[in-house]
Amino acid sequence: MTAGLKQDDNITALPYVDQAGSLRRVFVRDMVIATSIGVYDFEKQAPQRVRVNLDLSVIEGEGPRNDDLASVLCYEELVKGVRAICDDGHVNLVETLSERIADMCLADRRVRKVCVRVEKLDVFDDVGSVGVEIERFNLTR
């Protein structure tokens, strides 16, 4: 070991880990919504069904846990946010839609990580779904 260094000098705390509290997982499962999505002309003619799944790691905070909605991340607001994004006009790619949803989730300072899965449900007759899943982290808060 080099003089002046301690074994702990090689350990770096991850910024998204809350050292003062715990993480809670908040999720939205199997939300099916019609939205205008796709790169082909025929896809721009009518909305398509997509399935959205969200999984968020959320700081619980240092205060007392109580039975008050204001003290937690509200999944109703997540659902409303996804609906608003899907109603906001045409997007070409599921990747774009996923990024917009992730950004909406990470706007809440308590969210440390979000996993967003967007699946197009009616693309192929012999395939249940196609899509993308992304993970994004809030490392700066």
Characteristic key phrases:
141 residues, alpha+beta, GTP Cyclohydrolase I, domain 2, 4-stranded antiparallel sheet, 2 helices, elongated
The strand line-up of the biggest sheet is 1-2-3-4
Write the H/E string, N to C: EEHHEE
**What is the typical, i.e. mean, pLDDT?**
87
Count of domains: 1
Helix proportion of residues, in percent?
Answer: 10-25%
Number of helices: 2
* Uncertain ranges: none
Q: What is the CATH level 1 assignment?
A: Alpha Beta
- CATH topology type: GTP Cyclohydrolase I, domain 2
Let me know the largest β-sheet.
Answer: 4 strands, antiparallel
Describe the structure.
The chain is α+β, with helices and mostly antiparallel strands and 141 residues long. 18% of the residues lie in helices and 30% in strands. It has helices spanning 75-86, 94-106; strands spanning 23-35, 48-59, 111-120, 130-137. Strands 1-2-3-4 form a 4-stranded antiparallel beta sheet, with helices on one face. Helix 1 packs antiparallel against helix 2 (94-106). The radius of gyration is 19 Å and the shape is elongated.
Indicate the topology.
Blueprint: E1 23-35, E2 48-59, H1 75-86, H2 94-106, E3 111-120, E4 130-137
Antiparallel strand pairs: 1-2, 2-3, 3-4
Helix pairs in contact: 1-2
Can you describe this structure in just a few lines?
18% of the residues lie in helices and 30% in strands. By secondary structure, it is of the alpha+beta class.
